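User: Fold both of these, please.

Assistant: Here is the first one.
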Amino acid sequence: MTVRAIRGATQLESGDREHLFERTAELVREVITANGLATEDLVSIIFTCTPDLTADFPAAAAREMGMGDVPLMCAVEIDVPGALPRVVRLMAHVNLERPRAEIQHVYLHGATVLRKDLAQ
């Protein structure tokens, strides 16, 4: 089985915990759906948040979705002046027998401006 990486990002309207969990869960679901994945296909997920998101960890939202056995990690995105605020990004590593060109990366809400070439 080949390990592939899938990228995704979403922008939040506010930094509160409930909204963070809602948008993170939406992003994870969209990545899974767009790529026809099952939870068993996930090797790991790395989440990053912009420094303005501090209410909780995006990985906690994924655990609430039933991904307690998937290795999850969170980090803070580099604080670049003028960067898009309130963004959660992910890189999911998955077992997938599909060419890299067929991977569907997912950019939601205001995060579509980050990768217009990849946004759906």
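And the second sequence with its predicted structure:
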Amino acid sequence: MTTDELSLVFGALADPTRRAILERLARGDATVNQLAEPFAMSQQAISKHIKVLEKAQLVRRTRAAQARPCALDAVRLDSAAGWIAEHRRIWADRYDRLDEHIARLRTKESA
């Protein structure tokens, strides 16, 4: 995943409404009306959130007769989680080396 794609994913995930929409879609496909139900906002506002999620390729719209339900597309979430895991390993390694360095310094001080 490129940096720009990753930025789109993290930007989309930065909003609590969009995260709630993704949580709902994790339970199954839903129409815009169904996604709008729990929120105190217009269908148009929910549609804008969905467009952000679509641009980040976290949501795709399917066609079922006249309806166009939204579906979760978790591939980008998996890629973002992989990026986070890799950087978590890098930072954990750095903290481990820092802990070792501090322990050596303390050993020298007490000697």
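The longest strand covers residues 59-61.
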